[in-house]
Amino acid sequence: MASKELSPQVPKPKDDPKTTIQEILKIVDQLHTKLLPSQTQDIITTSRSTGGGVHKQTCSQTNNKKKRLESVSSSPAVLVGLKDSEDVVPKLQRNLRMLNTDVIKLQELNQDVGYEVRKHFTPLNNLLKKVESSKPELTKGMKKDLEDINMKMFNLMKKVPMLPNKGKKPKGIDSHAGEEDNYGKCIAYLPGLHANQEAFKRLAVFRDVQNKFKELSTDRKICLLSLAVFPENQKVNRTMLMYWWIGEGIIPYRGTQRDKEKPENVVKEILKDFTDRNLIEPVENRRKVEPNSYMMNPFVHSSVVVISREIGLFDMYHKGKKPRMRKSELKKVCLVEGSSSQPEAKTKKMPAEDIETVFNVSERFPDFTLKWFSEEQSQKKNILAKTSFNALKVFYMGRWERTPYRHIDAESPEFMKYVKHMSKLRLLSFQGISRIEKLDNGVCELSELVILDLRACYSLERLPENIDSLKALVYLDISECYMIGRMPKRLSWLDNLEVLKGFVVSDVIVEEKVCTLAELVHLRKLRKLSITINKEDFGVVQLFEAIKDFLELENLKVAWGLINEQKNDGEGVRKFLRTTSYFPKSQARPLPLPELPKKLKKLDLQCFPDPDLPTWLKPQNLDVLEKLYIQGATKLTGFGKLLPENPTKCNVKVLRLKYLPRLVVDWIELRNLYFPKLEFLEKYQCPQVSFCPTDGIGIWHKP
Q: Where are the beta strands (DSSP E) in 27-147?
């Protein structure tokens, strides 16, 4: 009987996942109570700014019942308990809560999809009866109705998360590897216009592209030819191109702080030049103020493929054959679907000493390429030589597409041990690769690495503690890495870091190993920052108090996850400042409100938690900000009181409002009272933002 009472309750297959998660969460909460003290306590942290000394950092109180304890240094037993549990219980709590929230959203989405689809059953059935009872002719009215329904179905489809099927790694060289895509459908390899090169070169379109190519500078010629590696009619993202061209050394990543010399603007200028010459076309998207993706006309694409092949830059396409992996004359290797089963995939077939670039175009299992850069490969000529591949500058193993449709897998977690031998690497991308749980410490030996792209590595749980060894790092992207629960302490020691995407503010108790948001103030060059907040007592006030001294910050994106409901009016601000012990209790002095960083131009707030905007976010105080995005703020009711006789100095030109069911404002107030310099508005799922002259998809442009 006793064994039956102690046996765990295994959920039945038909159990409601939300209920099951909540029951498990109760158990974990009890474990948290037993294993960790419920009180918030002072933590001893190490700060580089004090020369390695120590100072006390006080955590904010999470509720009135919690009492402050003495310093951890006086409670060694407590410290041991915290260290043992810091990466287990709090992480499990957080992930269960996030999973519970996702399950609720999926259930709501399921209901919404069912409701929306059912609405169109009767109209479509009536249309069918009408066609059956008369001539089967599609009138303009019928076509318009079908197009409207199709657009609604497409919008619903975009809301459903993509869950790619896991493919099996091909086994033999003679197997039909690469014949299927990620969803089991056969891929049709259509010959491009360049298949018959001799005939194609006689066409006027080729001569036109060739003449325009000759007019370009050497660097821009390489930029244009790099577009030859992508399949026809594919959208290519501007940021990805910037990363690649920085890695190749085509555009500088350091220089003055003048806007036109920043890499982002240099890339825009190059792409504009190509657009003006009709070599590429911007992808039209009315929801974008300016294009961020580009395509190449098939005639231009084939011309560029031919020129690239003649020069020897890229060597993928050959007459009558599928794209194939080869090392080009100029030392570039492009991975295509099925490369892992080619004879050239073997280490002895691919001498890697002089490879400059490895770029994954369409291979699902690219980790075989790491073995090219092994100790044996480097030392086969001289057993005493140090293992180093000095030629390699770009190793782009991840996904270049912004969409998650192409699933990339790494079969062995050991493959990363070879990265340390790429001593001159500038760009390393593992974007979208699954099964990467951690980075090998060897990555931190890449002293010349400028860009580390880990976007959408869903299994990644932590970054190396000695990440500050990446002295040259300028771009670090860990966005959509949902398993990462904390930031390493030495992240704030990356002196050259300018762009940090995916910083996590978590509820980890022991902060001596964690980089806090406020400590990023040491990143004196930081221009762009995106943050995910998974800490229950970290609200709007705490956020802007932490970042107000970020002197170079221009672009900030914040997404709140699990936080407590807080009142962030003036009294809430003062209460917060009093609890953070900035001044002795006996000392009375006026405390300043948090404020926006001085150079902030773009602010994106997702899941904003409060019903009111704090003082420093009200439109009349946004005299520097140019772009304001507010999404998923289900409690937000308005922009604050502002009388017509008090003209605002608001400088916001681009405003995006999405999923704001309680926001009440009309167009006249929005345009004339709050945002008089407005040039672009996107309004979506904001039923009480009324009388706006937007088009059918909620977009307004200033005439």
A: 43-46, 54-57
Per the CB < 8 A criterion, the answer to whether 442 and 416 are in contact is: yes
Residue 658 and residue 686 in contact, taking contact as beta carbons nearer than 8 Å: yes
Three-state DSSP string of 163-176: CCCCCCCCCCCCCC
Taking alpha carbons only, the member of 484, 401, 611, 437 closest to residue 87 is 484
Ordered by start, the domain boundaries in the chain are 194-498
Q: How far apart are CA 241 and CA 237, in angstroms?
A: 7
Choose among 488, 476, 486, 431: nearest CA to 458.
431
User: How many Cβ atoms from other residues are within 10 Å of residue 329's Cβ?
Assistant: 12
Residues 498-555 pLDDT 10s: 999 999 998 875 556 889 999 999 999 999 999 999 888 888 999 999 999 999 999 9
Contact 366, 360 (CB under 8 A): yes
Half-sphere exposure of 482 (CA within 13 A, CB side): 13
Reduced to 3 states, what is the DSSP secondary structure of residue 514?
strand
Q: How far apart are CA 302 and CA 309, in angstroms?
A: 11
Distances (CA, A) of 478 to 403, 462, 482, 661: 16, 10, 9, 31
Amino acid at 292: N
Concatenated DSSP letters of 569-620: SHHHHHHHHHHTTSS-TT---PPPPP---TT--EEEEES---SS--GGGSGG
Are 674 and 698 a contacting pair, CB within 8 Å?
no
- Are 327 and 313 contacting, i.e. CB atoms less than 8 angstroms apart? no
Q: How many CB atoms lie within 10 A of CB 27?
A: 12
- Torsions phi, psi of 500, nearest 5? -130, 115
List the structure tokens of 352.
Answer: 């890697």
Paired residues of 428 in beta bridges = 395, 452
Would you state the structure tokens that stand for residue 497, as one six-digit string?
A: 């870091």
Interval 550-585: pLDDT, tens:
999 999 999 998 544 444 444 444 444 444 433 334
What letter would DSSP give residue 327? B
3-state secondary structure 76-92: HHHHHHHHHHCCCHHHH
DSSP tag of 551: T
List the end-to-end C-alpha distance of the chain, in Å, as a whole number: 79
Task: Give strand ranges (E) for 407-491.
Answer: 408-409, 427-429, 433-434, 451-453, 475-477
pTM of the model: 0.73
